[in-house]
Amino acid sequence: MRHRQKKEMIAMLLAGGQGSRLGVLTNDVAKPAVPFGGKYRIIDFPLSNCVNSGIDTIGVLTQYRPLELNAYIGSGQPWDLDRLYGGAFILPPYQSFQGGEWYKGTANAIYQNLEFIDMYSPEYVLILSGDHVYKMNYNQMLDYHKGKNASCTLAVIQVPWEETDRFGVMNTDEEMRVYEFQEKPKEAKSNLASMGVYIFTWEKLKHYLIQDELNKESANDFGKNLIPDMLVNDEPLFAYEFKGYWKDVGTIQALWESNMDVLDPLIPLELDDPPWRIYTRSSNLPPQFVAEHATISNSSIADGCFIDGTIENSILFPGVTVEMGAVVSNSILMPNVTVEKDAIVEYAIIARGAQIGQSSQIGQWKRVEKEGMHRDISVVGEDITVAARSVVPAGTVVSADIEEVSV
Amino acid sequence: MRHRQKKEMIAMLLAGGQGSRLGVLTNDVAKPAVPFGGKYRIIDFPLSNCVNSGIDTIGVLTQYRPLELNAYIGSGQPWDLDRLYGGAFILPPYQSFQGGEWYKGTANAIYQNLEFIDMYSPEYVLILSGDHVYKMNYNQMLDYHKGKNASCTLAVIQVPWEETDRFGVMNTDEEMRVYEFQEKPKEAKSNLASMGVYIFTWEKLKHYLIQDELNKESANDFGKNLIPDMLVNDEPLFAYEFKGYWKDVGTIQALWESNMDVLDPLIPLELDDPPWRIYTRSSNLPPQFVAEHATISNSSIADGCFIDGTIENSILFPGVTVEMGAVVSNSILMPNVTVEKDAIVEYAIIARGAQIGQSSQIGQWKRVEKEGMHRDISVVGEDITVAARSVVPAGTVVSADIEEVSV
Amino acid sequence: MNVLGIIFSYAEQDSLRELTRHRTLASLPMAGRYRMIDFPLSNFVNDGITDVSVIALKNFHSLMDHLGAGREWDLIRKRGGLRVLPPFSMTESDRDKLYRGSIDALAGNMHSIRRTLAEYVIMTGSNIIYSMDFKTLLEQHIESGADITAVYTKDLNGHPTVPSGAMILHFNEEGRFQELYVNKENINQPGTAWSTGVFVIKKSLLETLVADAMALGKYHFHEDILRRLSKVLNIRGYEYKGFLLEVSNVTGYMQANMNFLSSGFREAAFQRPIYTKSKDSVPARYFDGCKVSNSIISDGCRIEGTVENSLISRGVRIGKGAVVRNSVVMQNTEIMRGVHLDHVILDKDVIVRENRRLTGHITYPVVIEKGSII
Amino acid sequence: MNVLGIIFSYAEQDSLRELTRHRTLASLPMAGRYRMIDFPLSNFVNDGITDVSVIALKNFHSLMDHLGAGREWDLIRKRGGLRVLPPFSMTESDRDKLYRGSIDALAGNMHSIRRTLAEYVIMTGSNIIYSMDFKTLLEQHIESGADITAVYTKDLNGHPTVPSGAMILHFNEEGRFQELYVNKENINQPGTAWSTGVFVIKKSLLETLVADAMALGKYHFHEDILRRLSKVLNIRGYEYKGFLLEVSNVTGYMQANMNFLSSGFREAAFQRPIYTKSKDSVPARYFDGCKVSNSIISDGCRIEGTVENSLISRGVRIGKGAVVRNSVVMQNTEIMRGVHLDHVILDKDVIVRENRRLTGHITYPVVIEKGSII
After folding, report:
1. Between β-strands A327-329 and A344-346, what pairing exists: parallel, antiparallel or unpaired?
2. Are C3-269 and C285-368 in the same CATH fold?
3. Helices vs. strands in chain D: H and E counts, helices first
4. Would you give the DSSP letter of residue C191?
5. How far apart are CA A311 and CA D291, in angstroms?
6. C285-368, what's its fold?
7. Which chains form contacts with chain C, at 3 or more CB pairs under 8 Å?
8. What is the DSSP code string of C291-316?
9. CA proximity to A222, closest of A104, A124, A123
10. What is the dihedral of CA D322, D324, D328, D331, to 10 degrees?
11. Is there a contact between B363 and B392 (Cβ–Cβ < 8 Å)?
12. What is this structure's pTM?
C-alpha cells in the first residue's frame, strides 16, 4: 500500500539492560538513558553513529522501564530519525496469535522482531548495544563486511592483555577470519575484544536465529550461542579492528572515568566534531550564567546552569546551580542538581535533581597516605536531598535522603 | 530538564483487542488497525476525534501484535500528533524493577501506565477504545463533566430496547446521575448504553485504580470492577448522551454494514467534513484511473485503483484493480485487491492483497425465495489467492488459497 | 548521495498564459493530484538526494504552500532537507532586479549553496517531467572525468518536434561538447540531441564558474558557461533514454496531461513513487448515473455526470448531466448540472454555472483562470 | 486558542546600523542564544496560539534559516503552524515596491490571512521583548466589546524615556481610545501610555478595515486605522505591566542585552520557555586560567580568557589573555589571544586577531559587521 523502500542495512539496538552495576543511577531508567558527557545520554552515541553512517532505520529493543527511553527518543527528531520510511522504533515484547513472551536473550529479542526487520527487506543487519561510548563509522565496517564476503563481521578492539578475562576475545588468522571465540578466557590467545557491534548478512542471521530458537537448551544469546553455532558451521566470520575511543560505561568507576575523558585533550573522544556530531534531545533552557564569585577551570558546563562557586575538572549537565562558596571538583553533576552555599563535592556523581545542602561535604576523604592514590567515587541518587552540614565519605552511595542532624 | 507543560486532559486508548470475532481480518493486525471506509482504519476515528477536540497527547495501550499499529502510527504526523510535548505513544507492557506482567484487564492496563499519565499531570483523563466508528467532540463532554462536577462521566447512546442485552446499560436519575450500571441486562431499566468513552477526574481515577489493583479478586476491568466500585462509594458519576452515529464494528456483519453506511446519504456519518476531518496515513499512490469499459454507480473509490469493470454500491480501498467484465457489488475491497476478468464479487469483504481469479464467483447465492432476505457476507482473507472459476458461496470465510480445479 | 539538488522553480520565459499568472511554473498542477515540481523533487528523493534547494523568483506563495516544510517528500531534516530560496538582496536598489539569467540566480543564492556539505550539484528545471537515474548519471560524470555533464535526449517523446527554445547540443566523436544553438526551426529529425536542462557539476567548480561569469556580466548557463567555455572545460553529454514531457506552452501542458491517460506512460511515470502534498480528502464518490471512462479521477471528487478522456484534480464536483471531455480540471472546481466542456483547462476554484458550454481545440484549449465564475 | 498570531519581522525604520544590513530585525541575535523573534513567537506558543504568520519584507534569508520548518517552536502542523510570508506580487511592476506601511503589508498577505480558520488576530512587532498573557488579553478584548484592543504600557522599563518614535496613546475616562501622537520629545514622565504595537482584532474586521484603507490609499495602522477611525470604532486599551525591552537603535540593543545580566530580569524573561533553533553544539568548555564573571555564556563556547559583564553567543572562542568587557559577541566569532574589547558589539563570524584593542562607549558601542576580520 505504501511504497516501501528497501533498506540496505538497518540497525537493531539492544537497549534492554537494567545495568544493575550502575545501582541507584538506573533505578528509574534503563542504562542507555543514563546521562553522559555534559548533555548526552549513552544511547546518543550508537544513534548518532548510525545517522552519521547513513543508517536511518533503527529498532530499539527494550523491556525494562521503556517509558523514559520511549519519551526520550520520541519521534526521533533530534537525531534526524523522524523519517517517513524508517526512523527509530521502540520495540517491546508483544503478544501474537500464539501468545507472547518476554525477551529471553539478546538473540531471542531479535528473533521476536523478525517481522519488523523483514518489513525493510535489508541485506544486512547491524546489531548494537546501548552500553558503550564511542564514535564509529558503521558504513566503513559494512564495506569491510562486503569485501570479506562475510556472514558476520564483529567489531573488535585491542584491550590490555591483563584485562582480556573481562571480554569476549576473538582469535583470528592473518586474514582476520575468526576461528575461535573465547568468552572471558583465563588464558587469552589474543587481545582483540568484541565490542558488541556485529554486522550480519540478514539471510544468514535469520537462518541462525530460527535454528537457535528451535534449540530448547540455548540461552538465546549472541555471544554464548549464535556466534559459536556459526563457527561450528564454518561460516565466514571476520573481525574488524576499530581503532579509537571505546568504553563500556557499565560501572560507576567506568562512568566517572569516561566522563572525565571528555575533559582530557589527550584522549581521542572529541565531542565537538561537526562532521561526526553527537546528537541529543536538547533541554531548551536559557544560556548559562556565570555570576560574580565564580571560578572555573577545566570544566564543561551546559545550558541553564547558574554558577557562583568554584568548579574544577568537572562536568555540569543542564540546569545545575552551584552557589557562592561551594566547591565542585572532579565530579559529574547531572541535570538540575543544586549545590548550596559552601558545600564541597569531590570525586562524585550526583544524579538528576539531587540537592546538596549548605556546607555539606560529598566525597569527604582523609588525605592520609601518598597523593594520587585511588579515590572511590561517591554517588548521590536521583532527587535525593542531602541536608546541610552532612558529611558523606568517599565511595558512599546515597540512595535515601539524609536528614538534618539536630545539634 | 525539559520544560514539561501540564496538559488539561490526555487520552488513553485501549487498542489491545484482538477482535477475534473479526476472524481472518485480525490474524495479522490488532482490531483498531482494520481498514474502514475506503481509506481509513478504525483507530483513525478516536485519534481524529482527539485531535479535533484539541487533545494532543494520547497513549495507545496495546500488547497484541503492535508492530503494524506501531508502524501505522509512527511519529503521529498524519494526525498532527508529532508534537514536541505530547503526541501519540504506543504503550506496551514493560518490566520494572519488580518484574513485569502483561495487561490483565482494561483497568490494569491504565494502572501499569500511571507513570506515563503523571508525566503530563493532567486534571482529566479520557479513556477510549479502538473498536468504534463515530465522530465526537470530547471537549464538549469535558465541559459537561466539569459542569456536573463529576468524578467520572460516561458517554452513552440510546440503543433499541430489544438490543439492550448486548450492552452495559446506565440507569440514571433525571439529572443524568448514574445510580446503577447493568452489564448486559436481561431486563433493562434504560436504553442508554455505555459507548466505552469515559472522562475521569485523574485524581479520582488514580485512587480507584490503586484500590482495584490491591483487590486480588478483581478482573481489573473498567465495566466490571472500577465503575461499580465508584458507584458503591457514591462517587458522582454522570451519563453524557451522545446523539450521532456510533457503531461497534466488532463483527463481520457490523463491519460490512457500517462500511455501507458511508454510502448512504441518509446516515449521519459524513466523512467529507472539513471542520471535523478524519485523518489517516495516506498511501501516496497515483490517482485512480477509470478505463474504457468501466461502469460505476454509488461507490467510493480510492487512489491508485484501476477500474475497467462494473462497480455498484461498493467501497474500494487504495490500489484495487477490477478488470474488464468483472462485477463488484455491495462489497468492500481492501487495499491492493485484484479482481480479475469476468469475476463476480457480491456481498463480500475482500482483505488486503487478495487475488480473485478470472471468472470466479465470491458470495454466490441462489436467489431462491423472496427478494431482500438476509444475505450472509463472505470474507476472503489477506493475501489469499482464489483460483480462476472458483465458486465461493455466500457467507463463506476463505482463509487459505483456493487452488485451481483441474477440469 | 553526496549531492545537492537544485531546482529552478520558474521558467525564464513561458507561454502558459493565465496558468502562470498567479503561480510559478513549479506549482502548476499536473496529472490530477500533482504539481510540476513533484516530478523532479521526487526523482531526487528516490535517488537518495535529500539536500535540495529550490530557487524561487516570484509568485512563489503557491509553491511554498505546496511544499510546506517538505514533510511529504521526507525532507524535513536537520542535515540537508528542503530549502526554498527566495530572491535576496543586500540593498534596496538591487532588490528591484529580477535575475538576469540562471547564473545570476545561482550567484544570488551562493551564500546558501556554499554552506551545504555536498560535493556535487545536480541542477534541473521544473518544466520537465521525467524519471532519471541520478545515481548512474553521477557515476558516469565521475568516471568520465567531465567538468560538467549535460543531460540530453534524442527522443522526441511524443512532441512533434524538438520543443522550440530548447538547446540543441553538439558533441565531437570523443563525446566532448562542442557547440549549442537554440532550436528555432522546429527540428523533428530523429537523433538530434537536445538539452534537458539537467546538469551535473562539482560544487566547487560551480562556485568558481558562477563567480567568474558574474564578474564578466555573463548570466546564462547554456550560452555563457557551456558554449563560452567549451574549449576550456571538459563538458560531456549523458543521454537520457526514458520518457520526458516538456511544458512551456498551453498546448504542451494539455498534451503532457493527456499523456497520463495512456497506461504505458502511467506505468513508467509511477514506477517509482511521486510524492505530493497530502490533502486528507475522502476517496472519490461516484453517484448513480455517472459515466466515467478513460480518465484520471482524484480523491475528494464527487461525480454525478459524464467524464471522458479527462484529468480531474482533487475535490472537483461534476453535476448531473454535465459532460466533461478532453479536459483538465484543477482542484476544487465546481461544474454544475448540464455543463458541456470539450478541450478546456479549468484552473482551481472555478465555478461553471448550469448548462454553460465551453469548447476549445486540441491546438488551442480554452483556459479559464483561477477563481473565475463562468 | 482561536487566534492567528501575526508577527511583523521588520521595523519600518530602525537605527541599528550594520546590525540589520544583512538581516531583518526579527533575526537579530539577542541574549546569547536567541533571536529577537524567539520572544514574541514563544509567547504565542506558550499561550497555545499555534497558527502564526510572519510577514517578511527583505533580507529574510537569515530569518528563514533560523525558523526552518518551525520544529523547535512545535509549529510544524497540518492545521495552522508557522508560515513565513514573503512579499507577493501579481505583476512584475508591482513587485518592485516595498510595503508602504503595515496596512499595505497586511493587504499583501490577505490571501493567506483570510484562509486561516481563526476568529481573532493578535499582531505584534519583533522589536520588543516581553512576556504577555495573551489569554487574558483576548478575554478582556471579548468582554470589553472592543473592536480593537491596543496594548500599551506606562512603564519605562529601564528606558530613560519613552522610546523615540513610539506612539503615545490617549484614552478617555471610559477607556476609549481618543488620539495618538508620535513621541518625538523624549517624554520621561511616568504614567504616559505608549503603544507596544500589540493589537487584538477580529479577523473579519481586520479584513474589512485593511481593504477600506487600501482603497483610500492609507497604509499606516496607527495613523490610518486607530486615529482615523477613533470615533467610529470602539478602540480600547489594555495595560501591559510586565517587563518590556524595545530595540530600535544600537544603544537600545546593547541595553536590552545588558538587561539579561540582571538575575531578576532573567527570572522574569525565562519564567516561561523561550524556544530557539537547536544547534547540537557541545556544552561550553572552560579552560585553566579563564576568568568569567557576571556573564552569559552559550553552548559551544571555548573560553580561555577573561569575560566580564558580557553576553557570549554560541560557538565563540576567546583566547588566552583576551579580555572581553561590557560587550555582546555573536555566534562563531573568534577572539584571539591578548585581545582587549570594551563596549563592543561583534557580529557573527568575526575574527579579531591577536592583541587588537577595541573600545566603545555605553552610549555609542563599537559595532563590527558580520564576517569582518579585525
Report:
1. parallel
2. no
3. 8, 28
4. T
5. 12
6. UDP N-Acetylglucosamine Acyltransferase; domain 1 (2.160.10)
7. A, B, D
8. EEESEEE-TT-EE-SEEES-EE-TT-
9. A104
10. 20
11. yes
12. 0.89
For the record, the C-alpha cell of D330 comes out as: 555573536
**C-alpha A337: how far from its chain's center?**
21
Among A195, C275, A297, CA closest to D287: A297
Is the per-residue pLDDT at C88 higher than 70? no
The string of DSSP letters for A323-338 reads -TT-EEES-EE-TT-E
E strands, D266-332, are 284-286, 291-293, 295-297, 302-303, 306-308, 311-312, 317-318, 323-325, 328-329
Q: Give the closest residue to A244 by CA, choosing from A267, A276, A274.
A: A267
| pLDDT tens digits along B221-280 | 898 899 999 999 999 999 999 999 999 888 899 999 999 999 998 888 888 888 899 999
* pLDDT single digits (tens) B381-393: 999 999 999 999 9
| Rounded Cα gap, residues B114 and B269, in angstroms | 35
Reported ipTM: 0.86
| Predicted pLDDT of residue B1 | 33
Domain ranges, ordered by start, for chain D: 3-269, 285-368
Residues of A in contact with D299 (CB under 8 A): 39, 287, 302-303
Sequence letter at residue C315: G
Across C12-77, the runs of DSSP E, i.e. the strands, are 29-30, 34-35, 51-55
Q: Which residues contact C163 (CB under 8 A, 6 or more apart)?
A: C183, C194, C246, C248, C252
Give the gap in angstroms from C-alpha B11 to the nearest C-alpha of chain D: 19
Q: Mark out chain D residues that contact chain C at CB-CB < 8 A.
A: 21-22, 58-61, 64, 68-71, 76, 78, 83-86, 88-90, 92, 95-96, 98, 111-112, 280
Sorted by sequence, the CB contacts under 8 Å of residue D23 that are 6+ apart come out as: D59, D61, D62, D63
Q: Shortest Cα distance from A225 to chain D (angstroms)?
A: 40
Confidence of residue C9 (pLDDT cuts 50, 70, 90): very high
Task: Tell me how far CA of residue C199 lies from CA of C5, C42, C239, in angstroms.
Answer: 10, 17, 12
Low-confidence spans in chain D with pLDDT less than 70:
88-97
Per the prediction, chain D carries an average pLDDT of: 91
Note the helical H segments in B215-270. Answer: 227-232, 252-262
Q: Categorize the per-residue pLDDT at C97 as very low, low, confident or very high, splitting at 50, 70 and 90.
A: low
Report the distance separating Cα C283 and Cα C271, nearest Å. 22
Nearest CA in chain D to B54: D1
The Cα–Cα gap between C307 and B289 comes to: 12
Residues in chain C within 8 Å Cβ distance of A80: 77-79
User: Does any CB of chain A come closer than 8 Å to the CB of residue D97?
Assistant: no
CA–CA separation, C23 and B317 (whole Å): 33
B2: confidence class by pLDDT, cuts 50, 70, 90: very low
**Cβ–Cβ < 8 Å for C326, C309:** yes
Our CA-based measurement puts residue C82 at a distance from the nearest CA of chain A, in whole angstroms, of 14
| Domain C3-269: CATH architecture, name and number where available | Alpha-Beta Complex (3.90)
Which residue carries 434504560 as its cell? B190
DSSP A78-114: GGT---SSSEEEEE---EETTEE----SHHHHHHTTH
pLDDT at D352: 96
As given in the structure block, the three cell numbers for residue B32 are 483498531
DSSP state of B162: G
Q: Quick check: B220 and B107 in contact, CB under 8 A?
A: yes
Residue C12 predicted with pLDDT over 80: no
CA distance D134 to D4: 12
As a whole number of Å, the end-to-end CA separation of chain A is 73
Average pLDDT, chain A: 89
